[in-house]
Amino acid sequence: MNKEIGTIERRKERLDRGIKVRTEGIYAISSLEEVSYLVLPRLILIIGLLLLPAIIPSLYWKRVISITCIYALLALGFDFLANFVGLVSLGGAFYIGVGGYMAAILNKSMGLSPILTIPIATLFGAIICTLLLLPALPLRGVYFAIVTLMYPLAIARIIEALNILGGTDGILGVAGFPTRWIEQYIIILIIIFALFGLRRLVNEDIGLVFRGVKDNDQAVRASGLSITLYKSIAVFIASGLGSLGGAYLSHIYMWSGISQFALDFSIIPIAATVIGGGGTLVGPLLGCFFLVPISEFLRAFGTLRIVFYSIILLTFIMFRSEGIMVYAQRKYHQFERWVKV
Amino acid sequence: MKQEPILQVIEASKSFGGVQALVNVSFEVREGEVFGIIGPNGSGKTTLINCITGFVKMDSGKVLYRGKEITNRPPNYIANLGITRTFQIMRPYYSLPAYKNLIVPLFSPRARKKGGWRGGGKLGDRETVSIDILEEIGFERDSFVPYKLASSLPTGYLKRLELARCLALKPEIILCDEVFSGLSMSEIASMVPLIEKLQMDGITLVMIEHRLRELFRVANRVMVLNFGAKLTEGTPQDVMQDEKVKEAYLGSEKLLDYTFEA
Predict the structure, then answer these.
(1) Which among B53, B55, B104, B176 is the top mutation candidate for probing chain A, defined by the most A β-carbons within 10 Å of its own β-carbon?
(2) Which of B1, B65, B169, B203 is the most buried (most CB within 10 A)?
(3) Distance between CA atoms of A134 and A137, rounded to whole angstroms?
(4) What is the pLDDT of residue A1?
(5) CATH topology of domain B5-91+174-261
(6) Cβ of residue B102 closer than 8 Å to a chain A Cβ
């Protein structure tokens, strides 16, 4: 122990590992060890996700995994919009609902198989969501959030009041997947591709434009780029991910109804982003794999569930507000040591 | 010097609520010249640039670029014609490294048309081009500066980054909103040759400036604004002697002393 308490003359020094050259994204790799330093974390994630359906035995928990993956798609979209384009979107329920109803209608009335309904619902769901959100695109921050929250609430009430699209019963008898294995592995492959695709996208030139829109939209306009165009491309991508999740959800439950416009789909992705670490893309995904199973696990406590859930969320916000992945990445990429001042 | 006007502003007016920011301001900028706009604080200089570049919609009046009307078009349309601007309060992308900041303008339709899909044509990809532009504007290629986050750059470099963003668009006109403000004397001294070099490259410059001594060194003609109205226009020497200008700035006849002390 240092006797002069209060004047302990040492501080924590943080150094980037030598593999990083000058700036983010430029690496110098010269040995197999350094290759594994970069590849290993990604490999662990991919293999872990692929093993998940195999190691989980019960049918109930297998279903939970599929649902978790759908939340993960929404969380990826939310993180992309919020932290790379600067649009805080509460429209998760809107995207899910549009995609879900569209897949159900295509399947029931036109008799298309899930192989066709899911891509069509993804594409046209994204187009519909983007068109409906187009008037809100000049808005920023909380104002955009309010408009995106309004749509799922309004549409659910419209369906209820006008008794269209099956009304409160929803659309029953949608085709399901042939086996559980297909159901799970397709969605797991989809989230792996969505995760690495988005990570690639935000570092491409067009991704830098998105990040520019977040940092300083006026400078983007002065650079000769239309911010409305790039915001709508971003919303198209995020709502496409959501609609894909919704279409998938309809085929998993073999049903589509107004509970697909439930606010869970808007709120849980945000909580997952807070816990997982915003701006990392992988963080929100892992956040979902943490939050959604816990929420299922706590069902045993009945109505006390929400209390425990809130305590877990609060703990994270109080003690690790940056999020798991931001913290983990910092620890992984930097040396820390105590040095004398 | 060629005498045809590249940019014409005719009777521009703009008011914000009860404040008349611009009152029937008309002027012409000739191709290849450095055109200075000066005036006391709040005289409408920045509003004028905002109106020309489409960031603010004019109440009445016209802006012509090479005889073609561009009044109240969106800012990105105007930037793609080659009319670029810097911001008085710098607007870099703070979370991106300096050289990545330039990828955004290099991605614009105008830069893509000139540079091909990769951005630099034969010169390479957009990152290579952006480092070239940064070197031209005073970021040393071999130092760490171009790779640093924009949030960690000092004011002098951010001002240069603003100019670099304009250069990335291969501009015809650059409207500079106080590029010298907030800089130290030595930083200004190193910026002046840069401005002269831009003019030699054939770029027309419109400069709003409070540093009159430096402006008068580079400017061919100067316009004076006061309370949103045009006071006078002419060569720096004429403007300096003008009684109305002295009155606007000082309320007396001490403009000469002021400019040489500042």
Answers:
(1) B104
(2) B169
(3) 5
(4) 44
(5) Rossmann fold (3.40.50)
(6) no
